[in-house]
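Appendix B. Raw example, untouched.
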Amino acid sequence: MLNHTAAPDGAIEYKGEGDDPVTVVTAALDDFKGEVIGRLEKVEAAQAGAKPEPETKGADKLVERLDKIEAKLNRPATSEKKVDELSLERKAFGTYLRHGDRTPADELKTLTVSSDPQGGYLAPAEMSTEFIRNLVEFSPIRTVASIRTTGAPSVMYPARTGVTNAKWKGETQTSEASEPGFGQVEIPVREINTFVPISNQLLADSGGGAEAEMRLALAEDFGKKEGAAFLTGDGVLQPAGLLRDTRIGSVATGHAVAITPDGLIDLMYSLPAAYRMRGTWMMNGKSLASIRRLKDAQGQFLWQQPLAAGQPESILGRPVLEAVDMPDIGAGAIPIVFGDFNSGYRIIDRVDMTILVNPYSRATDGITLIHATRRVGGAVIQPQALAKQLVGT
């Protein structure tokens, strides 16, 4: 809608609602033209009827004003037309980018920050290169057992099972012959393997990250499986676990369902002094928590904190090794093993974990196969160096 009002100097001002200046001026020019034509007709009629001259002067003023308006329209434009005016939301977003949390509340409330379908997130989520992985716990038996490598499918160890049988004799008595006993201990190398199919597109899109993560997962899985086998392996397809070796002696706790201070002392001193002085306690965290509450007859705790940072805690003066694969305390269970593991248990490494990437077998399916293999063996070589704690009377 176009409105016009008379200015103090006699000029007519035009105001348009929703129109730009060019539209307003054009409309004003059309009105002026119509008014000039009308006034000129009045002037001609006045002249013909001998009317007073003032109307002629008014017409001249209108013509002069019309010339000025046309001159203004012919001038170069000094401002551009606002075609794409920003919405309130876009203005508020620009203000937020410049001022952050200092954005005025009346502008900040126009932004939506919690609805993804409505485009409310101000910035996309960052894709981190760090993987969130579950904790994989390993048996630490490798840190105390003796480890050897081999290139053969098994290792044979000669063993002396007895000593000579010397006897006390008199001056003229005849000596008797004796022979020590000999045997052998064979540790076969076992194999653990698996393969993982993985999409070729995933391998390409991850930039090597998927394959690296898969290798790490395989290494953790193999480490956990072999650690458990060194303790509880059946010796058929797995390494022979020390908990299953019947040659290792056991000492009862003296209680049907619990560990006792007397049972621990008896277990420790059931070994020869040479092995006892190099002995290590092996148990899981739950068993260790129970033993930390035990006291001797003088009221002193059997468990002792380490003397220096980085040193292991001890029970009856000997270090403790926490093994996640050891059984919990219970009737008939064997929750604790004590002894010289370096002398008692032997681990044979044949082949470290090897990775074979096979992109050919299922190439038509767009799948790459990642094969993993590990060959290792283990067995008790000196049963007298170890002793088991049996929960029972």
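End of appendix B.
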